[in-house]
Amino acid sequence: MRRLLATAGKEARILGRDRAGLAVLFVMPAVLVTVVAVVQEAALRLMATPTLKVVLIDQDDGGEIGPALKRGLTDAGVFDVLDRIDGRVPDIETVRPRVAKGRYQGALVLAPGTTARAKELADKLVEGLVAGRLPAPAPLPGTDVTVVADPALPEAYRKLLSNTTGAVLQGIETRFIVRGFARSMETRVMEKIRAEMPSLAGLAGTFKLPEFAMPDRPGTLLAVDEVAAAKEAWITEVPSSAQHNVPAWTIFAMFLIVIPLAGTMIHERREGTLRRLLVIPGAFVPVVLGKALLYLGVCVAQFALMFAIGLWVLPLLGVPALDLGGAPLGLVLLALATGLAAVSFGMAVGAVARTPEQASMFGATLVVIAAAVGGVMLPTFLMPKAMQQAAQFSPLGQAQQGFLDLLMRGAGVVDVLPNIGWLALSAAVGTAVALTFYRQRD
Amino acid sequence: MSLLTAEALVKTYRGARVPAVAGVDLSIARGEFFGLLGPNGAGKTTTLSMLCGLVTPTGGRVRVDGRDLSDPAARRMLGLVPQDIGLYATLTVRENLRYFGRMHGLGGDRLDARVETCLAMVALVDAADRRVGELSGGMKRRANLAAGVVHEPAILLLDEPTVGVDAQSRNAIFDTLSVLTAAGLTIVYTTHYMEEAERLCRRIAVMDRGALLVEGVPADLIAAHPGCGSLEDLFLALTGRALRD
């Protein structure tokens, strides 16, 4: 134990004097998690409640569709509908270049006479239906509403604009049809009274169905709610970027210890200190485990630092604080297992590589690849199926999966035991490689 | 009585056609200063590595004070001064000595005393708190020697300990080694420098191509080879003048 602690103390001194190594282990991940979480939070907010500026070019001669369209789109909570630009009614020649440049995300052009034409078609439709004829499809007299989109607007947002416009127009059409039915009913009732009861013909003119308001959009009868699935309950809020980024970059930081750890092992081998140590009976295992102990401590410190940033620093920058979920023990166990896997990986690279350059290039590249495959940089569900399967074999992927389960899916300690087991297995393999090759390479 | 013996030591590295060491026998007495000489690639470092247990022999065995080298008690009697500076460059001289002392099982007052003794022995008291990476070549070599004896070994194995050292530091190292020998330390010393061997070693062995060519007291060996006026003459006569690198 004394040798183990002596080695850990020696490693602490060496690492403490390695400013570049400390920067890689603590400063770089802290900056990464802060910057990425803040940037991603803004993107998440845009994705969750985007505000798209849409210009309404209403050429409908005061028809009611224009105002109804504006109301309907505004009520959707996604669009900021502008029907005046610089105090004037906009025209397509002015608006099109501005949309093309991305100043506005879209424009809706309402053709002249749209309302009159829509009402006329609605009346004809009702007339046919009342007469027992199936309505013939109305020939398109011209495009009534044109949706103009910024070419750089993502497909999802373009469809959102088109579909919302379509839904609002559908509501307006329904209103016109219902009104047409009402007028038809009035006419038919009056005709019947005149024909059957001439003495009451004078009253016929006074019969009128009550005026009624119709919503601009459908969807007032059946409500749709949106929640995220969780194991135990429903999560009612969309998780913030901190929930994904803090564990992701913590894992990444832990595995970056490959750079200083492998470096110190190779220096030890190349500079003859390992030879001196190997002469001492029984020193080899404490030398290796002493390093592991110190760097496991570094991993725990990284975990504490990164989670502290998530809890207390990110909120200062407008990102909601990290929610630790309901299983703190699970977080600690998973962090330790991740740290063990990271340390054993670093030691394995240090044992196998022949030069510090090899170790830093090979180790860092491998970490970036494993991080990408493991879903640290991009959620795995966005990846192709083959990559999703590969993620299962990445220690970083297993760690990330476990942390996401604990922080976002309401999982408990038992749920992440398979992830912990997998990480422990990879730690055992890495340690075996390190113990085998470190001595042999000398 | 021999303190360190090697019997029919053989080492053939994996993939090599010829053995690096082919049947070396050595017997080194307690308190003896023994020199192992040979050109590059002669097998000196491999022999030294087998003597201290760093390299496992393909054949033969090493005994320390009658014990097989696999016995930890035998290994504890050994100290190594490797050819490279086997010290941590970002630690101070004192921190290095304390670490290696602890790894040898020293602690408390004994460790403190040994560290100070070793620092004084190699004249590095004033540089004790300087990082090894900041020291001159000679100071590094002296610190390297101190780390090899911090645990008071019975046998010290030195692999070319004066490479790249100025005359002053080399002289200081020789003085230290003389003091250590006088105190009863057994030394096995490999070197390229014949004048060092002639000055320091009570007995020498000349190796080439993995085999011992001669072994004995330097003056006796020179006298036994007509035409050789010095150890260097003897060395060249035995190993030839052809370049080895």
Fold blueprint:
The complex is a heterodimer of chains A (442) and B (245).
Chain A: H1 2-16, H2 19-48, E1 52-58, H3 65-75, E2 79-82, H4 92-100, E3 106-110, H5 114-130, E4 145-149, H6 155-196, H7 201-204, E5 228-229, E6 234-235, H8 241-255, H9 258-270, H10 273-279, H11 284-313, H12 328-352, H13 356-373, H14 385-391, H15 395-408, H16 417-441
Parallel strand pairs in A: 1-2, 1-3
Antiparallel strand pairs in A: 3-4, 5-6
Helix pairs in contact in A: 1-11, 2-8, 2-11, 3-6, 5-6, 8-11, 8-15, 9-12, 9-13, 11-12, 12-13, 12-15, 12-16, 15-16
Chain B: E1 2-11, E2 21-29, E3 33-37, H1 44-51, E4 59-64, E5 67-68, H2 72-75, E6 78-81, H3 93-103, H4 108-121, H5 137-149, E7 155-159, H6 167-182, E8 186-191, H7 194-200, E9 203-208, E10 211-216, H8 218-224, H9 231-239
Parallel strand pairs in B: 3-8, 3-9, 6-7, 7-8
Antiparallel strand pairs in B: 1-2, 1-4, 4-5, 9-10
Overview of the molecule:
The complex is a heterodimer of chains A (442) and B (245). Chain A has 442 residues and is mainly alpha-helical. Chain A is 64% helix and 6% strand. Chain A has helices at 2-16, 19-48, 65-75, 92-100, 114-130, 155-196, 201-204, 241-255, 258-270, 273-279, 284-313, 328-352, 356-373, 385-391, 395-408, 417-441; strands at residues 52-58, 79-82, 106-110, 145-149, 228-229, 234-235. In chain A, strands 2-1-3-4 form a 4-stranded mixed beta sheet, with helices on both faces. A two-stranded antiparallel ribbon of chain A has the order 5-6. Mean pLDDT of chain A is 82; it is low at 232-237. Chain B has helices at residues 44-51, 72-75, 93-103, 108-121, 137-149, 167-182, 194-200, 218-224, 231-239; strands at residues 2-11, 21-29, 33-37, 59-64, 67-68, 78-81, 155-159, 186-191, 203-208, 211-216. Chain B is an alpha/beta fold. In chain B, helix 4 (108-121) packs antiparallel against helix 5 (137-149). In chain B, strand 4 and strand 5 (67-68) form a beta hairpin. Chain B starts with a strand and ends in a 6-residue tail after the last helix. The mean pLDDT of chain B is 89. Classes of the chains: A mainly alpha (442), B alpha/beta (245). Chains A and B meet through helix 1, helix 9 and helix 10 of A and strand 6 and helix 3 of B.
